[in-house]
Amino acid sequence: MLLSDFDYDLPKELIAQRPLDVRSSSKLMICSDNHMKHTTFDHIIDYLQQGDVLVLNNTKVKQALLHGNKASGGKIEILVGEKKENGYLCSVKGKHLKEGAVLQLAKGYQATVIEKREDKFLLTFSAAAEKIMNDIGQPPLPPYIKQTAAAERYQTVYAKQLGSIAAPTAGLHLTPTLLEEIRKKGVPVVSVTLHVSYATFNPIKTEQVEDHRMQQEEFEISKAAADTINRRKGRMFVVGTTSLKTLESSCDDRGRVIPQRSLSSLFIYPGHQFKVKIDGLVTNFHLPKSTLLLLVSAYFGKEKIMHAYAEAIKHSYRFFSFGDAMLLLK
Questions:
Q1: Full residue range of the structural domain in which residue 70 is found
Q2: Whole-model pTM over 0.90
Q3: Statement to judge: residues 25 and 159 lie in one domain
Q4: Domain end marker among 136, 169, 188
Q5: What is the tens place of the pLDDT at every residue in 159-174?
Q6: Which of 18, 58, 170, 294 is 20 to 30 A from 153, comparing alpha carbons?
Q7: Are 73 and 56 in the same domain?
Q8: Contact 286, 255 (CB under 8 A)
Q9: Which tens digits make up the pLDDT trace of 265-290?
Q10: 310 vs 5, 7, 240, 305, 316, CA distance in Å?
């Protein structure tokens, strides 16, 4: 399977640079095997019935973006990633970083370069990384978003478990009012957790899709969440690719979700045989050649997904993190 088969041309003006004033007013494309409809996100409640279950990823984005300088005065930008045995794996923007270099951060904090690991750096910090992030860090935004003022909205309204470097963006459309209306309709809203790391967004560098290897991401499903999912009387709707990956990573061969806290390196691409039964997936429009585009193609079918993306471009949908959404119905 070739990565180039998952490419498409997107006009730059369709890359959303800021969220809409009202989260649930974004466009929503409803897609099924033989049907396509254009509406707004607040109408998603029309597709839910009493007894259905709605699954969300309640991870919370860390203030993981740090700014500073090298000893030479050159500016650097650090995105603090996952904790390793002897430091933190970080993405660092800055030229000519060497092992042993001490980077100066605000308020007297420092970071030291331990080693380079492919396109990332292993860093240690002069204080607890969590303390530094809380003190001087900023929420990270994807590189294609240039309006930094939008960072305050780069969090779902139900974010609870701190640990991600990126938001589960399909959930950005949900509001407290809409969630309450969904619950009143008799649809339990269940939270699982997957902390989004570099694994989700690392570019695929192999032309042969099957040769790509995903890094691990931490996830957790409580017993209460698993019981609600497994005992449901109706259908299951999942908000976001990370929620779907969490369920699939915890599912046994009978399709039952097993409560656990673990790590997943699952790479889902077309041909994957899903163990968990999903009736509807809410998702945003993803970057060309990305692992997320491959995941939704595995779930819904590559040809149908690429057709839906072409329709979205035709109808001027907004793409990527702050963009519009689609509901994929099986």
A1: 65-136
A2: yes
A3: yes
A4: 136
A5: 999 999 999 999 999 9
A6: 294
A7: no
A8: no
A9: 999 999 999 999 999 999 999 999 99
A10: 14, 12, 20, 9, 10
